[in-house]
Amino acid sequence: MLKDKVAVVTGGTRGIGYEVARKFLQNGAKVVIFGSKVKTVDSAVNNLKKENINYDILGFFPKLDVEEEVRKVFDEIKNNYVYSVNDRQKLENEINALSKIGYHAIFAENLQLPVNAAGAVCFENQAQFHPLKFLFSIAKGLKIYEHTFVQEM
Q: H-helix or E-strand containing 32?
């Protein structure tokens, strides 16, 4: 019913906002939820994905009262591509494998690359972020052990 529509739900991590996000997803919309904390956003996204792995949902936690932070979220969502210069079959195999685990990826041709490519796997609506800023934000309060060795897994 809402295929190809995008719903942005602030406060979508619990209560009424969570239920609104769920209803949009159940009706075929793509959903972006905003929350105030990493933990609650991750929990909401994971719980909704457990209900249906095919739900197309992203979660973010910008300061909602700072317009630049909210705008930045939408500037950072882009398509991501993995390409091959000579082996189209490997790309098609990758898409088939992704499909088996419920992830929707598409085959892309006519890419604007500085090299000739046989094609690419397109992962739509991927967040793009600065890795050091990301690590800094999740490392707050985290104990980091240096010069240690993994002894078993």
A: strand 30-34
- The structure tokens listed for 83 are 């390409």
DSSP-derived letter for residue 114 is S
Q: Each residue of 3-21: pLDDT tens digit?
A: 778 888 888 899 998 999 9
Residue type, 67: E
* Whether the model pTM is above 0.70: no
Assign residue 147 a region: left if phi > 0, alpha if psi is -120 to 50, beta otherwise? left
CB 27 within 8 A of CB 2: yes
Task: For residue 118, give the amino acid letter.
Answer: A
Helix (H) or strand (E) holding 137: helix 131-139
CA distance 129 to 76: 7
